[in-house]
Design brief:
Number of strands: 12
Number of helices: 11
Helix content: 25-40%
Shape: globular
Structural class: alpha/beta
Strand order of the largest sheet: 1-4-5-6-7-10-11-12
Strand content: 25-35%
Mean pLDDT: 93
Largest sheet: 8 strands, parallel, barrel
Length: 242
């Protein structure tokens, strides 16, 4: 099943979008992320994707109370990431009503932690792999590691990861289309489900991704395109038969 995930990036309590993760290139799209989430749910969103941008930069959750309010309000599952580095952070969000947490930087920097949460929470954990030129970026995309995205996916699949969220940072916020080839390759080498993130700007992008559902591409996160109106969520669901 292919799922569309409307994205809400939270910074300073507001719904914003960045360009290629650059905190200096921010556009505020909504002053109230709860209202934004309710709007996407009303338009047929089956899941909501939340990113705590402040948390990603700080290295610990910052907007967790707001995220919990969204999770309790929208009536559809919510997944969220940004600064999750400890089991306590993960437990807190799950207790607040989040359905799936996303582990990013810690997947590179703290393997024992990742093993622990995958063992304890399994399907409630997704691994966010953000890549620049094929290498994993960490700490809110402020740093690039020497680990290849595909190698990391294979390693973590062996530890029990079943869902990956893959972002090609060079495409994020640029409205240039997703890197479909890299997304499919990650799904194939890991043998697991991959949600595409970054670059979705037209309905045709969603057509290309949904066509790869049989190869493990299980969904797409849509951010800027929804806020600019170049993609309308209800129309996208209708077009894809979702």
């Amino acid at each position: 099943m292919f799922i569309l995930y409307p994205a809400i990036d939270i910074r300073g309590g507001k719904c914003v979008r960045l360009v290629q993760g650059d905190y200096n290139q921010e556009t505020v799209y909504h002053d109230n992320p709860v209202e934004a989430a309710l709007a996407w749910a009303e338009q047929g969103g089956k899941w909501i994707h939340l990113v705590d941008l402040d948390g990603a930069k700080a290295g610990h959750p910052v907007n967790h109370e707001l995220i919990g309010e969204i999770a309790r309000s929208v009536g559809v599952p919510v997944q969220t990431g940004g600064g999750l580095r400890t089991v306590a952070d993960v437990e807190k969000l799950l207790q607040l009503g989040v359905s799936r947490v996303i582990i990013g930087t810690a997947a590179i920097e703290d393997r024992p932690f990742v093993e622990q949460v995958l063992k304890a929470y399994g399907e409630q954990v997704a691994i966010g792999i953000d890549a620049w030129n094929g290498y994993v970026a960490t700490r809110g995309w402020l740093e690039t590691s020497e680990v290849k995205a595909e190698e990391l996916a294979v390693q973590l699949a062996e530890l029990g990861a079943r869902t990956f969220i893959f972002t090609d940072i060079s495409r994020d916020g640029m409205m240039q289309g997703p890197n479909v080839e890299a997304i499919v390759r990650l799904a194939q080498v890991s043998g697991q489900s991959v949600i595409a993130s970054g670059g979705v700007s037209r309905y045709e992008d969603l057509d290309r991704l949904a066509a790869e559902a049989g190869k493990g591409v299980s969904g797409a996160i849509i951010g800027k395109a929804l806020y600019t109106g170049s993609i309308k969520l209800a129309d996208a669901h209708g077009r894809l038969g979702l």
